[in-house]
Amino acid sequence: MTAAFQFLENPSSKKLIILFSDPSAYDMWGLEAHLRKAANVLVIRVNEKTWYQNGVPGLGKSLEETISSITTWQKNHKISKTYCLGQSVGGYGALLFAGFLDAKGMAFGGETVLGVPHGLYVRRANKAMQITHGNLSAMFRRGINATHIVGERDPVSLYCAAQSTEVPRLKVTTLQRVGTQVAQELHAQGVLTRLLTSWLQGTRLAGLPAVGMGLTSDRFASNFYVGWCKLREKNYETAVDYLTLAAQAYPEHDAVRLHLGRAYHSLGAHQEALAQFTATHEMAPQADALNGIGVSLRMIGDILQARQKHQEVITSWPEDAAGWYNLGLCDLNLGQKNVALVHFRRAAELDPKNKSYAARVKALEAKM
């Protein structure tokens, strides 16, 4: 084993699975051991900030040398079939290597176009590194023999995936109520290993949860992504415009409604925000939406109803720091400083990095 890769041999198999894993040593819920039963496994753990642009240390000094080393290894070991598998940055790697090796790929999420505003690559990549393979949708004339499964709550991956729908042999599937952690969600639902087994056997993918319409509605992915970007940029009026178009194209999409509620809230349009947060929570009960409902009610002036909503949050999601904090704000409005302080302290304990929570505790303690 090296810092960058580990080879898990299965002498009885002529298959090779290249698993693009996290740089740390965790084994993806025992997935490596499961895959090893079916094939030889090459686990690649390159620092995610490189996005595999420079290849894999120990296999080659460049991506081209790395691909050549793997190709030579395939020939020497008479490998009959190669598979590439990964999530997020590893999902990009799985598609990239599948294209070069003409292997069969499976990507869970991941940006297929590097450098889009507010994307993971822009936020985390080594800025001194040159992008040599920035747009997978335009790189391979023969296409990519792969399946790309994207969570519909992830606006960046969905936007990138929408640009890949015409790539030959690449099948893109979107999942409702799933965000960036696609593999984790499938594992939590108990379907990940069954899905991968069917993929390796070449049969119809088994166990996929509700498939969405993120790539079938007219311009939905683009409007969702742009609206989300504008929300991050605090251009709230433009965010409302784009997110409204997205919601009209795909009314059942909970994350669009959640972000639209946040944009309305930032504009002070609390009745409109309340409607969007309510719609979100009715589609898929979640702490963020229920907190949004509570905040909107408090801003409208219905403190008791707001407090009830935040109480529901901490009952259903006791580790949700925002629920405790917002409950404390309601207590302050009701003149219950002692109770508010207890709730603010709990919020700060759950989220010690949140400076607002700590500041609120300090300020209230100073007054008592």
Automatic annotation (TrEMBL):
It comes from the Bacteria. It holds the Pfam family TPR_2. PROSITE patterns: TPR. TPR repeats lie at residues 254-287, 321-354. Keywords: Repeat, TPR repeat. This is Tetratricopeptide repeat protein. It comes from Falsiruegeria litorea.
